[in-house]
Amino acid sequence: MKKMFCIGYKCTLCGKEFPYNGKMLTCPECGEKGILDIQFDYQGIKSALTREKLAANKNFSMFRYAPLLPLRNTDFGRYLRVGYTPLYKANLIHSELGLDSVYIKDDGHNPTGSLKDRASAVAVAHAIENDYTTIACSSTGNAASSCAGNAARMGIKSVIFVPQRAPEGKLAQLLVYGAKVVSVAGDYRATFELSRDAIAKYGWYNRNAGINPVMTEGKKTVALEIAEQLDWNVTDWVAVSVGDGCTVGGIYNGFRDLKEIGLIDRVPKILGVQSLGCCPFVTAATGDGKLVPAEENTLADSIAVGIPRNPVKALRAIRESHGAWIAVSDNDILEGMKLLGRTEGVFSEPAAASVTAGVKQAVQDGIIKKSESVTIISTGSGLKDVKNALKAVTRPVPCEPTIEALEASGIL
Amino acid sequence: MKKMFCIGYKCTLCGKEFPYNGKMLTCPECGEKGILDIQFDYQGIKSALTREKLAANKNFSMFRYAPLLPLRNTDFGRYLRVGYTPLYKANLIHSELGLDSVYIKDDGHNPTGSLKDRASAVAVAHAIENDYTTIACSSTGNAASSCAGNAARMGIKSVIFVPQRAPEGKLAQLLVYGAKVVSVAGDYRATFELSRDAIAKYGWYNRNAGINPVMTEGKKTVALEIAEQLDWNVTDWVAVSVGDGCTVGGIYNGFRDLKEIGLIDRVPKILGVQSLGCCPFVTAATGDGKLVPAEENTLADSIAVGIPRNPVKALRAIRESHGAWIAVSDNDILEGMKLLGRTEGVFSEPAAASVTAGVKQAVQDGIIKKSESVTIISTGSGLKDVKNALKAVTRPVPCEPTIEALEASGIL
To answer: Minimal Cα–Cα distance from A364 to chain B, Å?
Structure first.
């Protein structure tokens, strides 16, 4: 058992603080919208997580940052290897984006194919520490598959609630991992509400990221990794796509934690990227700051969230980091997917590809300057959504099997 | 420039030896079927690749084994991070397989989603060292996407020849990576022949694994990693699926190399797994040893190879390692996929899942004994072929959004 450095919770809405007990979800006073922040003993972490200790740490997974996680466990050898994904210095894309220096964090490299593995791995570990045997969430996408995969590896049951309209392809991965999949005859809201009621009734572990503050802490490990992989000299900007707001909130938390314990000297500016077809945060930021429900009209399904469940953490991330919000069209997203694939060999799903498009737009708009360095986070593998990738490309015209036909085809 | 430890080529058919020049493909005397082995100066490698040097090596990719690769380059920082994939000690599956000890090597964790990245990364590096600007192959699957992705990252053009019938989903990844895709109006043989003629005419680098001996050497790095991750105490068995025969041939080469330089004391027995719907090697091994063209009637498309191009290396791998051949049905493959997913959280494509099924069968047949340890290699991510994964699972029946309906549904 390691020393635990979590000391409390603070409600992101009313600001009230509560002592840490490892079990609170939302604020007892504000209800479901009162999402909590976990508070840490940074003085204690300062000596537990030094550059030297990290350099000597042979755990090449997100669990190398255990002192900054709400976990008591110290042995993570039995878990899937989540995190420690590659950070590539761009070979080519920076010049096409009009920038001097770009890095790409390929989080599609995670065991189930997305950054969500970071939240699910911590959730499973936290569930096990607290003697749960079942973990549940409502999701059609990466959160669900990561929950099912990480739970399977650790012998924990998973129950996943999906709306009936969820595409079959998204279900295959869940079902192969052995999850109990509840296909709800209703929309996403009905699905979420049934999951909430069932979780309450059966006492399962709640992996809904817009409820459980532990999830954000798992996601923040991508920021910790980026900083360590850059030898603690973080880029001027870090760009990521935003749906519910939990991931961008986690990224800010990660950099803030590192600044608090003195491992980095500043928090990078965070560029929050949404799709024009569903961009409640961008609308709020360019308007009166109030979040209004938006339509969900984009092919980037992982960020198609009209009513984000974690608005406070998301808005804070951009505001406190002195970052910016930007929205891009579905066409820009498909172009961004091809640009990143063609120049760097990284295949992103549409939500992840929106970041490349967003950085391009931000450079054109003068938000990011040529001399500023940028880290692009690709949150999910393109293999997660081959159907939409097909929309980005042109199927080749068949060619007769002769050199003459090949030369005449214009393909080369 | 590092010292190069390649000293020659040896034809796997006629046995004739040739000095190493970095450029030979097949045997000049035997023609296209005369696939070559690369020969190494093991004495030199013994001092270049010690346990101590590896323990201190901070390159966490397949290139940490550079002295055993046919490359002069020493700086691999600009490449995709291929290799260093997780080796999991089984938490649960060993007991379901009736074994005491099982490990799972998840090579679906590679940048483009399969073990083939190992061959393509070496191919791209070898191409660059030899001043090629274009790399080409004929394939519909993992070889193609890995070639395209690794080439894109290094700014090398890729030309991929695919038969016209190739499913669109398989093309999306190639096209996103910016490959020139030649869709050939003809079968696989016509596609291969056009690629061969075009490669000869335009002087491109040849990434066809059944021709270029460098590919096998890239693939062998999975064996080197397994051994290092097991702290040089290799399991009794290593199980892998077999199509063309290049991968299993590489795995044998890797273990043989390690034995030659004294890093391990024995080569594990290799279990070669095929699908009953296409198992020319199994038929040959249980018959008179002669390879006869087989039908290609299996959903495991990555190993659906009726006329394997690398039979000598494949047959040698099993024979010299004192291993065994086994074939499993498509239904067994789908069951194997679910078994590995449910017990260990690893999602394999059908060809990779055949290995789990093959090990299960081999235990039942008494080929593998309960007390023998086994490493299962999962060669590709399940996300590569979601369509077939759907055949393994049962789509849940929709449930009304009430607790009562959920309880009555029998899902939980």
So the answer is: 23
8 Å CB contact of A149 and B347: yes
Q: Using CB atoms within 10 A of its CB, is residue B254 exposed (0-12), middle (13-18) or buried (19+)? A: buried
Q: What is the pTM of this model?
A: 0.97
C-alpha–C-alpha distance, residues A122 and A116, integer Å: 10
Q: Which parts of chain B register pLDDT below 50?
A: none
For Cα atoms B301, B305, B306, give the angle at the middle one, nearest 5 degrees: 130
Give B388's contacts (C-beta < 8 A, 6+ positions apart): B299, B334, B349, B350
φ, ψ for residue A63, nearest 5 deg: -75, -5
Which of A184-217 are b and which e, b meaning 16 or more Cβ less than 10 Å from the residue's Cβ? Answer: bbbebebbbbbbbebbeeeebbbbbbbbbbbbbb
Q: Are A359 and A93 in contact (CB under 8 A)?
A: no
Q: In what order do the strands lie in the sheet with B180-184?
A: B180-184, B157-163, B134-138, B205-206
The dihedrals phi and psi of B11, each to the nearest 5 degrees, come to -70, 130
Residue identified by tokens 């005397």 is B29
Helix (H, G, I), strand (E, B) or coil at A159: strand
The two three-digit tokens of residue A5, written as one number: 């450095």
Report the candidate in B340, B380, B296 with the shortest Cα–Cα distance to residue B97.
B340
**Alpha carbon distance A245, A303 (integer Å):** 9
- Asked if A176 lies within 8 A of B112 by C-beta distance, the reply is no
Question: Rounded to an integer, what distance in angstroms lies between the CA atom of residue A264 and that of residue A221?
Answer: 14
Q: Measured between beta carbons, which residues in chain A are less than 8 angstroms from residue B198? A: 403, 406
Residues of B in contact with A176 (CB under 8 A): 337-338, 341-342, 347, 382, 389, 392-393
Sheet of strand A205-206: strand arrangement: A180-184, A157-163, A134-138, A205-206
**Can you tell me the mean pLDDT for A39-55?**
96
Q: For A302-314, b where at least 16 C-beta lie within 10 A, e where not — what string?
A: bbbbeebbbbbbb
Cβ distance of A173 and B382 shorter than 8 Å:
yes
- Reported as type and span, the H/E element at residue B241 is strand B237-241
* Counts of helices then strands in chain A (DSSP H, E): 16, 13
B102-146: per-residue pLDDT in tens? 999 999 999 999 999 999 999 999 999 999 999 999 987 899 999
Q: What angle do CA B225, B226, B229 make, to 5 degrees?
A: 80
Query: Residue A110: is its pLDDT beyond 60?
Result: yes
Task: Give, in order, the Cα–Cα distances in Å from A15 to each of A4, A28, A34, A303, B40.
Answer: 23, 12, 9, 28, 67
Return the bridge partners of A380, or none. A114
Contacts of B197 in chain A (CB under 8 A): 403
Size of interface A-B (CB pairs under 8 A): 244
Please state the rounded mean pLDDT for residues A127-142.
93
Q: What token pair was written down for A95?
A: 């010049």
Contact (CB<8Å) B177/A152: no
ipTM of the complex: 0.96
Compare CB distances from B401 to A111, A190, A345 and report the shortest one's residue: A190
Of B89, B91, B389, the CB nearest to A172: B389
pLDDT at A185 over 70: yes
CA pair distance B18, B37, nearest whole angstrom? 10
Q: What is the pLDDT of residues A205-226, one digit of tens each?
A: 999 888 899 999 999 999 999 9
Rounded Cα–Cα distance for residues B273 and B275 (Å):
7
Of A60, A154, A347, the CB nearest to B173: A347
In chain A the first and final C-alpha atoms are separated, in Å, by: 61
- What sign results for the dihedral spanned by CA atoms B334, B112, A272, A227? positive
How many angstroms separate the CA atoms of A254 and A248, rounded?
Answer: 10
Write the single-letter amino acid at B310. N
